Amino acid sequence: IHIARQLCPDGNKCSKLSQEDHLESYSHPGIRDIRLLCKIPGYKCSLRSNDEHLKKYRHNKNHDHFSTAPSSNLNSSINFARNQSHLIKTVNIYIDRSNWSKEKISPEILNWIRALQPVHRCRKEIFESILVLGHVMSRHYMNLLEKQENVGRAVQQHSRVRLIFLKYNNPVVKENVGKLIEILVEIEFAKANLHGKRSADADSEQKISMMEKRLQPPLEGKDIQAIHEWTTKIARASIDLSTNKAGIGYEVDPKLGTDKHVFSIMGPHLGHYYGDIVITFKQEIMFHPDANFTIQAGTTFYSQNIYKQRLWMKDPGNETKRIEHFHHSKLHCSVPRYEYATALELVASVGLEHQSMNVNVEAILEKWISVDSHQTLEGHLPQLIPLDYVDRVYIPKNVFEDLSPEARQSAKGAFKDSLIISIYDSDENKPGDTPKDMLNHPYSKYVFEELCAAIKQRMDRPHISRGIVITVGASDFAEHIVLPISITQAQYLYYLDKPQSPDGPEFIYIYWQAMDGDMMLTLTNEKIEPGGEQFNMKCLICYIAKKPSTVTEEFHETFTYLNDDLPYQHGNNVNAVRLKAKSNTFYRGCNTDDYFTFCLKLNYRTGHVTLSHAGPNSIYNHEKIEYKFNRAELDLSKLDYIHLSAGTQDVPVRNLTINLEPIAELHPIVDTQFKRDTSNLLERYLVATAHNNPAPPITNRAKKQRPLAINPRSNINNSVILGRIADIICCRHTNAIEPMALDDARPALTPCRDSIYCLQRNSSKHTKQFSHPCPYSELCKRKAKEPHLTHERHNVLKCTKDKYCSEKINPIHRANYRHTNLPDYLSLCRKQSNCQDTSLKHRIKYFHGETLPLIKSKSMCH
Length: 862
What we know:
Elements: H1 20-23, E1 36-37, H2 51-56, E2 57-58, H3 80-97, H4 107-114, E3 118-122, H5 124-133, E4 135-137, H6 139-144, H7 148-156, H8 159-168, H9 171-191, H10 204-215, H11 221-243, H12 253-256, E5 262-266, E6 277-281, E7 292-294, H13 298-302, H14 305-309, H15 319-327, H16 338-351, H17 361-368, E8 378-381, E9 384-386, E10 390-395, H18 397-402, H19 405-415, E11 419-421, H20 435-438, H21 442-460, E12 468-472, E13 481-482, H22 487-494, E14 507-514, E15 519-524, E16 539-544, E17 560-563, H23 570-576, E18 581-583, E19 596-603, E20 608-614, H24 617-620, E21 624-628, E22 641-646, E23 651-659, H25 679-684, H26 718-729, E24 750-751, H27 764-767, E25 770-773, E26 789-790, E27 797-798, H28 811-816, E28 817-818, E29 827-828, H29 840-843, E30 846-847
Parallel strand pairs: 1-2, 10-11, 24-25, 25-26, 27-28, 29-30
Antiparallel strand pairs: 3-5, 3-6, 4-9, 5-8, 6-10, 7-8, 12-23, 13-22, 14-19, 14-23, 15-16, 15-22, 16-17, 17-18, 19-20, 20-21
């Protein structure tokens, strides 16, 4: 059934035709609502960024996403809303006092800032280590490579290993690959004699063999070989890197905390002393919770140079306060208005000489190339960045040729078309060369022009990201990532240019997109501190269940819920069903091959909390999970901090925003006025009026006869059929069948008092008088042939191991968890506790009188 959508208000001038969600939410002239399905899966299709291709084709299996760049909550103590407001206020006060010529900041400058991307430079040796490790990392993280678990995590995020995960997309495969990697890393650490261990465990080879048997199939031999090869390479490179640190490290970096970040420049990077290899990152990395940037390098705060270059900034007077000032100058791309604070700083810096705010982008670039890179926007990125965040790599011809053959092959394989090997050799730098001097050299000029062209291209095409972007690593809800903006900060920024009600805001809307599910969004009155005692912490938990499988014979979905307990109690609360509001049909009707868009709405006045779908899925799924909290139970107005966490699998999250108004675009509505012109059809197939209102069918069934599920074929001529079609098209309900009288139904049998423990359930005489629970519950496919069985809903979770579960012979486990193609309850063995048959074939089918948790045992004989 197709549901008519509203026409896009921008019509032919729509600028969002490159966004799948928009195409699936609104109708556009010349584009099918339900586009053709591309033959190539979404994660493989190279044309997914092509507008013309997207207009014609939709994609399935869109489970490609960014790898996990782990969060360490590096920004948890930073108030970005306060920072940018203070920066704006400081500049404006200085301009007013100095009587500058004032000018409104141009939209072009704001758009230019939004289009900037972080750029990193490095030397050949570091680039080779990046290729082996599959990550760009901070100096602090290099120290962490002394630990085996961190190396194992790095292996799993490597592009070649990740390709295996994408290919099979199976949590059991990922778990077993992780165990194999863990064993292989342990062997390499033992060979290097780290941690005092001179040799691996004696049974290591046996463990490896067992893991390989579990993995093959579905994995192929070349996949197993790749896991061995890359694990060994990465482990050896990690051991070497942890003992021989790479990169430029300043003594002040640990004091500033910048040693925990990957350095970059937000915009063209002309710091040639960092190396000739230029790596640009995709903009999404700046929306990571651990990312931030400052208007100048952190070292300029410590050295006091910034106070000489930006006269509106006052030197606090000592080292501690300068470091504090550095932290108070940090900005984040996910916080609204960040671009205005940045623009004001850049314009003031450029206009300082002439005391004028009349500045354009060209003037900013002219200033940019005339100063050292430490005086431009310095980006501080997460400390471990997988290579799928890399946008482009520029490398001089002679530097690429100087790489080892293995490194050259690895670079081409990792970056493919994103690897740009210049026709120019690296530039010869002279002592004292300024960035402007460097642009006289061919390679530096080429890279600078490429970076500027990329910025211009992004200015012409607005970016899809508008909030937090992160792939939340699996932690079984033990690790919680705090967002860099709180609810009160979002409220403060919203009311900067809007009148505020004396009673405060009425609603809060939190939007986000997530893939696959099994994630938790937790609102708290204080930040979650791992390992700390927080007796006064109040929580609102929004748990999004793992998306149901589309390949199993039965549809099974675990509970998505709202609750007010601690997040660590998730497992206990789900098993005991101690949940405030829940649903196990939350994914019905949704497209499960792509990101889901969710909306969490809080009503401060009434205490209502509502979780619903937004975006294209909201057209087809109208389910809402709602609960009303009273203030004594949970005061919603006290909740301020938002945390993200994942269960047993990594969960990609993007576009997470806090809003005080609903985003209309994310709530597409059905076009209720849509009506196809069927006049020609009705004229061609006009039928007699007698057939337009047929009388209800008369049934001559005898009393007590069971109603049939399918009505018998009636002898209706073609004109009647066409009349029915016209009635359906015109929404006339003339084809409705009158329901049968209740006394036509067969009376229910008396439930057997022994239920599943009955030994006579195969006796025809017994089953004509008594009913028994069907072992398959509501999922039974033989309901019509088994009138003596009842098929009540059995509300239990699906076993996470499912087909690979080792407890399928345990009747209590079977009653508590579902398994594909297996009944919920085993059959009762007639020998019960005296049975001597311990074979797997017998035990997986029969139980022996054990008391099951969901059905109480009564007398066991008739």
